[in-house]
Amino acid sequence: MALDPYIVQNIWEPCAKEFYRRQFHEMILMEKAHGIMLARQGLLEAEDYRLLADGLDQVEKTLREEDIHGEYNDLYFNLTRKLYDIVGEEKGCLLHVGRSRNDMECACNRMQIRRELLDLLEQLGEVMETLLEVAEQNVDTVIAFFTFGQPAQPGTYAHYLMLAFDLFARDCTRLRAAYQNTNRSPMGAAAGIGTSFPLDPKLISELLGFDAVIENSLDAVSSPDYLLEVEADTAIMASNLSKIAQDLFHWASQEYHILDCDGAIATTSSIMPQKKNPTCFERMRAQSGRAAGLLAEAMALSRNTTLFPSMEATIDMFYVFGFAMEETRKALGLLQVGLRHSQIRRDVARTFARDSFTGATAMAEYLSQTYQIPFAETHRILHGMIDRLTAEKGGARIRDLTGALLAEVTGELLDKPIVMTDVEVQHLLEPEFCLEQKLTGGTPKYRDTIQLIEKNRAVLHDLRAWLKETEGRIQSAYAQVRQGL
Q1: Which end of the chain is more exposed for a tag (fewer CB within 10 A), N or C?
Q2: Is 357 exposed, middle or buried (0-12, 13-18, 19+ CB in 10 A)?
Q3: Do 449 and 180 touch, CB atoms closer than 8 A?
Q4: Are 328 and 237 in contact (CB under 8 A)?
Q5: Of 2-16, 52-66, 249-263, 282-296, which gets the smallest average pLDDT?
Q6: Smallest Cα–Cα separation from 327: which of 83, 468, 120?
Q7: What are the C-alpha distances in Å from 295 to residues 111, 239, 301, 335, 443?
Q8: Contact of 110 with 182, CB cutoff 8 Å
Q9: What is the DSSP code (8-state) at residue 315?
Q10: Is pLDDT above 80 for 383?
Q11: Rounded CA gap, 77 and 82, in Å?
């Protein structure tokens, strides 16, 4: 009895076309590699292999997405039907020895994911390069750093960008670990208990560029945890992207007016001509938010099933993976574009940092060390000065922190007043003074930030060297497959 047309049109055909878009070329390579292995094991005549390889070349050139039909169930059967049309069913069926759609599709899934992982890491490298470039231009660009939503102490835009770099560097570490768990071959497991044909799983693993063969045959075709690992890693990265987007979005608001976005990433209103919306960062925040939901969906699909192969652990999870990867990469792209088309208004940012009393902690530390007063006391002095201005003038302004006010408050709190000029007091509150006093390393001060940039250049170099070596190994393996016997 034929499948109901509803199932064919609404389930199998969309699924087969989705997998065609994502891993058609991987499946062609897997077919050829399996044929080479069969020939070397004496399970396929060399002449028949060459016929099949030529046929697969023609399939790769001529099979189009519109040719995929749901009546043939999935991508593999569509590909096989086309191969039979070219070489005949009698010859075409010689390729299907000692394998199942389970290990074949799991192999293609892993090949696809590893390709997308490498593409994502390449894109991450480009964004990290942009972060370094913009940071080098802003090593001395003062901005206010925040704690709990309030201006706290002075920092620099470069130091903030190097924080973003460090987040992405950790993302790279996680994704590289996920790559190691992904890049293992399931071929030879067949439907989960192996085969009685004398295959060589190690050979086909090498031909397909895998690092190793999955030892447990059931593990090879059932466990989707490697896929969940990739999705979790992208969700963490997307969470970081969303936080960066939120900061940039707020700095571009009229209230802060710190970040200037040019017309390439900002839009106006259809009714309010004065509006300049930082659309790029708002969109980036929205794109990032979807990854967490998609991870939750993938976890739900994987948990309520079985350790044996199932639709949820293969087809459905791969839909979710595709969407998660696409959304995260879009958000990454928006960050790179946004960084290149925005710049800090240096004077505005510095003034905001200074007028928000972000230098108060540095002044309290200086008074503590210079006059041998416990920091808790100098903290109370600064707090008292600001409170007094607020009570007397309805608000504290940085220029009102004078030598006279310092002497008055310290005279009340200490045995003797601290005497300083207005110029000396104001100097202690300058953001640059605050930054240059830092001694603990890794701070926003100029020298520390330069060192962070240099260190991170080495991190980026290591990533690119790993990518070059890894991609080279895969392409070398594929070249052997294309060369044939």
Answers
A1: N
A2: buried
A3: no
A4: yes
A5: 2-16
A6: 120
A7: 21, 12, 10, 22, 35
A8: yes
A9: I
A10: yes
A11: 9
